[in-house]
Design a protein that fits this description.
Blueprint: H1 2-18, H2 30-39, H3 41-55, H4 61-78, H5 83-98, H6 102-116, H7 123-133, H8 139-152, H9 156-169, H10 178-190, H11 198-215, H12 218-235, H13 238-253, H14 262-277, H15 281-297, H16 301-317, H17 321-332, H18 340-356, H19 360-374, H20 380-435, H21 440-472, H22 479-486, E1 497-508, H23 511-518, H24 520-540, E2 544-549, E3 552-557, H25 565-590, E4 600-615, E5 620-625, H26 627-637, E6 643-647, H27 648-651, E7 659-665, E8 674-679
Parallel strand pairs: 4-6
Antiparallel strand pairs: 1-3, 1-4, 2-3, 4-5, 6-8, 7-8
Helix pairs in contact: 2-3, 2-4, 3-4, 4-5, 4-6, 5-6, 6-8, 8-9, 10-11, 11-12, 12-13, 12-14, 13-14, 14-15, 14-16, 15-16, 16-17, 16-18, 17-18, 18-19, 18-20, 19-20, 23-24, 24-25
Length: 688
């Protein structure tokens, strides 16, 4: 009974507060209405709309204008403008502009453009007028109008100038209310690129969150905390994901006394993504579908599509390709032709699903559509993201397309050979039957000669295969690959082609000092024993030896046998750990009592390289060339004794807690510095 009574009292309090909102007071001010709207925009919209409908035509112009302004503010913040509101607000703006409410008319016009996203043909001229007309107004109104105008301006130079004016306007601390100060900081944080500098975005918001909470503006605080949680996800570390989960929870709690709307649904969707990553998959899917119910209620088709796109990603990560395909088909129904970037993202996901379903031809077609579409996107940041994803998934698809083409050609050749052999067999049969008696003796002699010739050729081929296995191939390939090459199931004489590989470069530390202290004969024995041990470790982890260079070795993971990017990174990293570990036994066996010991510098990088046989018909070597090999060698050169350095492209596939930041390395001919990470020598490696 007590709980029911408390609910009734709260309901009455909310009802009374709805009719006591600022627009009903004769001296209503924009500043107080704005605070109400930032605290609970949905309730502000409801109260203003009900008040205007109840009053009808029996309302003075002042109350009509101020309640319209309250309605516009709430609609802008909660994204809740319907067609009836738009017509009414436009008429009110004309009345206000013709009367004594020119300031309010300017605010109504700017809010109308920002909230309805319907712009006049002369939008830029109207924005310049709003900018000029608002200059004499006070700091709160002028700064807020500049926020709205900046969001509507497309020219980057003009936009930068407006942003600088906002900062200059609010710079004198003694003139700036606390609300305006926090609004400025959020304005700055919002415009920091979270792809390029997420740490700066996080630090800036962390600096003003305590001040924000003191303002007690629940809805606005929920919006900023939600954006804060999303930025933490971009940091992509375990600690950052924990922070994101905490902030999503804080944003959800702020809606306890607020009406649930699209922002609340967006918070649930973000929380679902963190839950799914933490293994709470069934709960995450239920939470995402719960978010969709709110978007369905508000008829927000874009965010409904976002929900199903997120579900498709969930299923794809879990390798539930059929479920992912159905979710993606559902998502595609919500994005219209003008949503070019969203549809392009769907093509990327669809290609990955088709690849998982082994529909390689369809995946290639989708990827080609995807590649053509992103070239038309003007947003350079989005274009860069698309290029990175294309490199990540497209290379594998391109390889599969080449395989399909090669298999088709081989099958056509085999069929042609079979047809030719069948025809020859029929012809031989006729001749044998016709001349059987006459040439029986000749046939026997010919058959004996063929058998003898076959035995000689068979022995020769077996000797050659044995020589290749024992003296050539086993020096560069693991035993399993050697047998595949000898059996004709794997080819090393293919033309070089571009593919994604992981390169491991290792080199002995202070080898010259060892040569001087041990002598050339002794060091030659040690070096040969070292190379044998390193080759065994590389072969054990499915690597291929590219070449031995003096006292170093370069190994390839992912060629000639295909290996996905994650497996390459794991195998190469485990191989590097094993190489360092085996040095202990070598030092005990070969260098007991000597001050100089075998120690390694190791560098690893994953990237695109040209892989295949290089040379002439008389002599060729199988190996890799390109930036990937160069970067791995340069990373190795700066590693410390018994240290494993790897680039971000390798670290991306590993548990990030096992890697520590080592700094950046600037390499000539590379536009950006290479980030380096030191890998733990003893920890058990797992996928990211």
């Amino acid at each position: 009974m007590f709980a029911q009574g408390l609910i009734i009292i709260l309901g009455l309090a909310l009802a009374v507060s709805a009719w006591a909102l600022p627009c009903h007071h004769p001296g209503a001010r924009f500043e107080s209405m704005r605070l109400e709207a930032f605290d609970n925009p949905v309730q502000s919209v409801k109260a203003a709309r009900e008040s205007l409908q109840a009053a009808g035509n029996n309302i003075d112009l002042s109350t009509r204008v101020m309640c319209s302004l309250q309605l516009s503010l709430g609609a802008y913040l909660a994204d809740r403008v319907d067609a009836k509101d738009e017509v009414f607000l436009k008429a009110t703006r004309k009345l206000a502009g013709a009367g004594t409410f020119k300031k309010e008319a300017i605010l109504l016009e700017a809010l109308q453009y920002a909230s309805t996203r319907t712009y006049p043909a002369d939008l830029q001229d109207r924005l310049r007028y709003l900018d000029t007309a608002s200059r004499p107004m006070g700091i709160p109104i002028r700064s807020f109008l500049l926020y709205l105008i900046t969001a509507l301006v497309e020219d980057p130079v003009t936009k930068a100038g407006l942003e600088a004016e906002v900062e200059a306007l609010l710079a004198p601390a003694q003139l700036t209310p606390e609300f305006e100060r926090v609004l400025l900081l959020e304005f700055q944080a919002f415009h920091i690129d979270r792809n390029r500098n997420p740490h700066k975005k996080v630090e800036l918001r962390e600096s003003f969150l305590p001040r924000l909470r003191k303002l007690n503006l629940a809805y606005w605080e929920a919006f900023i905390v939600y954006n804060h949680a999303r930025t933490f996800e971009y940091l992509a570390t375990e600690q950052a994901f924990q922070s994101a989960a905490r902030y999503y929870g804080d944003a959800e709690n702020l809606f306890r006394l607020l009406e649930k709307d699209d922002l609340y649904a967006s918070i649930l969707l973000g929380k679902a993504g963190v839950w799914y990553r933490n293994g709470r998959k069934a709960e995450a899917i239920r939470l995402a579908k719960r978010a969709e119910a709110y978007f369905l209620e508000s008829q927000n088709r874009i965010w409904q599509g976002e929900v199903w796109k997120r579900l498709a990603m969930f299923y794809l990560e879990d390798k539930q390709y059929e479920e992912a395909s159905r979710a993606l088909d559902r998502a595609s129904t919500f994005f219209a032709i003008e949503h070019e970037t969203d549809r392009n993202q769907l093509d990327e996901i669809r290609a990955r699903i088709q690849y998982g379903l082994r529909q390689y031809d369809k995946a290639v077609e989708t990827l080609e559509t995807y590649a053509k579409d992103f070239t038309r996107i003007e947003n350079k940041q989005r274009e860069q993201y698309v290029k990175e994803q294309s490199a990540r998934y497209g290379l594998t698809l391109e390889e599969e397309r080449n395989k399909i083409r090669q298999l088709t050609q081989e099958n056509a050749k085999k069929q042609a050979l079979m047809d030719g052999e069948s025809r020859k067999a029929r012809e031989r049969g006729l001749l044998v039957r016709f001349f059987a008696v006459l040439v029986s003796l000749l046939g026997v002699v010919w058959l004996v000669w063929i058998l003898r010739r076959g035995l000689v050729l068979g022995q020769t081929i077996r000797r050659l295969n044995s020589h290749m296995e024992n003296h050539v191939l086993e020096r560069f390939l693991p035993p399993a690959m050697v047998h595949e090459v000898a059996a004709g199931r794997l080819h090393l004489d293919e033309r070089p082609n571009t593919r994604l590989v992981t390169i491991l470069s290792a080199d002995i530390v202070s080898f010259t000092n060892g040569t001087e202290s041990l002598g050339s004969e002794r060091i030659a024995v040690i070096l040969n024993r070292f190379m044998v041990a390193m080759a065994d470790v590389i072969f054990e982890h499915q690597g291929t030896i590219d070449k031995f260079i003096g006292d170093g070795v370069i190994a390839i993971f992912g060629a000639p046998v295909d290996m996905d990017a994650e497996t390459q990174a794991l195998q190469a990293s485990r191989c590097a750990q094993a190489m360092v570990k085996v040095l202990d036994s070598l030092n005990q066996e070969l260098l007991t009592g000597h001050t100089w010991k075998l120690r390694l510098r190791i560098g690893m990088h994953q990237g695109v390289a040209l892989v295949g046989s290089f040379g002439t018909r008389q002599r060729s070597d199988y190996g890799a060339i390109g930036d990937a090999v160069h970067i791995a060698s340069r990373i190795q050169a700066v590693a410390g004794p018994n240290e494993i350095l790897l680039t971000t492209s390798v670290k991306h596939h590993l548990d990030s807690t096992l890697c520590s930041r080592r700094g950046d390395l600037k390499i000539r001919d590379q536009s950006q510095a290479i980030s380096m990470h030191s890998l733990s020598l003893t920890a058990e490696l797992k996928a990211a």
